[in-house]
Design brief:
The protein is built from six helices and three strands, in the order βββαααααα. It is mainly α. Strands 2-1-3 form a three-stranded mixed sheet, with no helix packed on it.
Amino acid sequence: MKEKIHPAWHETPVRCMTCGTTWTTGSTVESLTVEICSNCHPFYTGEQRIVDTEGRVDKFMKRLQQRDEIRSALDRSVEERTPLDLPITELDIGARYTNILEDNGIKVVADVLDRLGDEDDENSILTIQGIGRKVVSDMKKSLRGRGYQLSN
Protein backbone atom coordinates (compact mmCIF):
# COMPACT_ATOMS: atom_id res chain seq x y z
CA MET A 1 0.00 0.00 0.00
CA LYS A 2 1.05 3.54 -0.62
CA GLU A 3 1.66 5.67 2.40
CA LYS A 4 -0.69 8.54 3.43
CA ILE A 5 -3.40 8.02 0.78
CA HIS A 6 -5.82 5.74 2.67
CA PRO A 7 -8.37 6.98 5.25
CA ALA A 8 -7.86 6.13 8.91
CA TRP A 9 -9.57 2.92 10.07
CA HIS A 10 -11.33 3.00 13.46
CA GLU A 11 -13.06 0.59 15.80
CA THR A 12 -16.39 2.41 15.55
CA PRO A 13 -19.21 2.13 18.11
CA VAL A 14 -22.67 1.91 16.51
CA ARG A 15 -25.69 3.00 18.58
CA CYS A 16 -29.35 2.20 17.80
CA MET A 17 -31.63 5.20 18.44
CA THR A 18 -34.74 3.03 18.99
CA CYS A 19 -33.60 0.49 21.56
CA GLY A 20 -30.22 1.89 22.67
CA THR A 21 -28.20 -1.21 21.73
CA THR A 22 -24.52 -0.59 20.94
CA TRP A 23 -21.95 -2.70 19.12
CA THR A 24 -18.63 -2.07 17.44
CA THR A 25 -17.60 -2.38 13.84
CA GLY A 26 -14.78 -1.14 11.66
CA SER A 27 -15.27 2.10 9.75
CA THR A 28 -13.56 5.26 8.55
CA VAL A 29 -15.76 7.43 10.82
CA GLU A 30 -15.41 7.52 14.58
CA SER A 31 -19.07 6.90 15.57
CA LEU A 32 -22.33 5.86 13.92
CA THR A 33 -26.01 5.93 14.86
CA VAL A 34 -28.85 4.02 13.23
CA GLU A 35 -32.61 4.47 13.60
CA ILE A 36 -33.41 0.76 13.94
CA CYS A 37 -31.36 -2.41 14.34
CA SER A 38 -31.88 -6.16 14.23
CA ASN A 39 -32.62 -6.21 17.98
CA CYS A 40 -35.70 -4.01 17.62
CA HIS A 41 -36.79 -4.41 13.98
CA PRO A 42 -40.18 -6.18 13.69
CA PHE A 43 -38.92 -8.50 10.94
CA TYR A 44 -36.24 -9.94 13.22
CA THR A 45 -38.18 -9.82 16.50
CA GLY A 46 -41.45 -11.21 15.14
CA GLU A 47 -43.45 -8.45 16.85
CA GLN A 48 -46.20 -6.59 15.02
CA ARG A 49 -45.03 -3.13 15.92
CA ILE A 50 -45.44 -0.10 13.70
CA VAL A 51 -42.31 1.97 13.38
CA ASP A 52 -43.59 5.48 12.79
CA THR A 53 -41.12 7.84 11.18
CA GLU A 54 -42.22 11.47 11.24
CA GLY A 55 -45.93 10.66 11.67
CA ARG A 56 -46.30 8.97 8.29
CA VAL A 57 -48.57 6.26 9.64
CA ASP A 58 -50.83 8.89 11.22
CA LYS A 59 -51.01 10.81 7.95
CA PHE A 60 -51.89 7.64 6.05
CA MET A 61 -54.58 6.69 8.56
CA LYS A 62 -56.09 10.19 8.31
CA ARG A 63 -56.22 9.88 4.52
CA LEU A 64 -57.97 6.51 4.83
CA GLN A 65 -60.48 8.00 7.25
CA GLN A 66 -61.17 10.93 4.89
CA ARG A 67 -61.67 8.51 2.00
CA ASP A 68 -64.15 6.46 4.05
CA GLU A 69 -66.05 9.60 5.06
CA ILE A 70 -66.31 10.74 1.44
CA ARG A 71 -67.52 7.32 0.33
CA SER A 72 -70.16 7.14 3.06
CA ALA A 73 -71.35 10.68 2.20
CA LEU A 74 -71.70 9.68 -1.47
CA ASP A 75 -73.58 6.52 -0.51
CA ARG A 76 -75.96 8.56 1.67
CA SER A 77 -76.58 11.06 -1.14
CA VAL A 78 -77.39 8.23 -3.57
CA GLU A 79 -79.79 6.66 -1.06
CA GLU A 80 -81.50 10.00 -0.35
CA ARG A 81 -82.06 10.73 -4.04
CA THR A 82 -85.55 9.82 -5.15
CA PRO A 83 -85.78 7.41 -8.07
CA LEU A 84 -87.39 10.09 -10.24
CA ASP A 85 -84.34 12.33 -9.77
CA LEU A 86 -82.09 9.69 -11.32
CA PRO A 87 -80.08 11.26 -14.17
CA ILE A 88 -80.66 9.78 -17.60
CA THR A 89 -76.92 9.12 -17.86
CA GLU A 90 -77.52 6.12 -15.61
CA LEU A 91 -79.91 4.52 -18.10
CA ASP A 92 -76.93 3.36 -20.19
CA ILE A 93 -78.35 4.36 -23.55
CA GLY A 94 -75.12 5.84 -24.84
CA ALA A 95 -73.47 9.23 -24.58
CA ARG A 96 -74.74 10.41 -27.96
CA TYR A 97 -78.39 9.80 -27.10
CA THR A 98 -77.98 11.12 -23.59
CA ASN A 99 -76.58 14.38 -24.97
CA ILE A 100 -79.44 14.67 -27.49
CA LEU A 101 -82.05 14.15 -24.76
CA GLU A 102 -80.36 16.63 -22.41
CA ASP A 103 -80.23 19.24 -25.19
CA ASN A 104 -84.01 18.80 -25.54
CA GLY A 105 -84.73 19.28 -21.83
CA ILE A 106 -84.90 15.62 -20.77
CA LYS A 107 -82.38 15.36 -17.93
CA VAL A 108 -83.87 13.00 -15.32
CA VAL A 109 -86.01 9.86 -15.29
CA ALA A 110 -89.09 11.89 -14.34
CA ASP A 111 -88.83 13.74 -17.67
CA VAL A 112 -88.60 10.44 -19.56
CA LEU A 113 -91.58 8.98 -17.69
CA ASP A 114 -93.64 12.09 -18.42
CA ARG A 115 -92.99 11.66 -22.14
CA LEU A 116 -93.50 7.86 -22.12
CA GLY A 117 -96.87 8.01 -20.30
CA ASP A 118 -98.96 6.84 -23.24
CA GLU A 119 -98.54 6.11 -26.93
CA ASP A 120 -99.00 9.73 -28.04
CA ASP A 121 -96.29 10.95 -25.64
CA GLU A 122 -93.89 8.31 -26.91
CA ASN A 123 -94.22 9.89 -30.33
CA SER A 124 -93.13 13.21 -28.82
CA ILE A 125 -89.78 11.60 -27.93
CA LEU A 126 -89.56 10.12 -31.42
CA THR A 127 -89.95 13.61 -32.93
CA ILE A 128 -86.57 14.56 -31.44
CA GLN A 129 -84.02 14.36 -34.22
CA GLY A 130 -81.54 11.51 -33.60
CA ILE A 131 -83.85 9.49 -31.32
CA GLY A 132 -85.42 6.40 -32.81
CA ARG A 133 -87.51 3.43 -31.71
CA LYS A 134 -84.40 1.46 -30.72
CA VAL A 135 -83.33 4.16 -28.23
CA VAL A 136 -86.86 4.37 -26.81
CA SER A 137 -86.92 0.58 -26.51
CA ASP A 138 -83.53 0.60 -24.71
CA MET A 139 -84.74 3.32 -22.31
CA LYS A 140 -87.87 1.33 -21.50
CA LYS A 141 -85.83 -1.83 -20.94
CA SER A 142 -83.44 0.00 -18.61
CA LEU A 143 -86.31 1.61 -16.70
CA ARG A 144 -88.08 -1.73 -16.28
CA GLY A 145 -84.83 -3.26 -15.06
CA ARG A 146 -84.70 -0.56 -12.38
CA GLY A 147 -88.24 -1.37 -11.21
CA TYR A 148 -90.29 1.28 -13.02
CA GLN A 149 -93.75 0.24 -14.28
CA LEU A 150 -94.32 1.16 -17.93
CA SER A 151 -97.06 0.45 -20.42
CA ASN A 152 -96.03 -1.75 -23.40
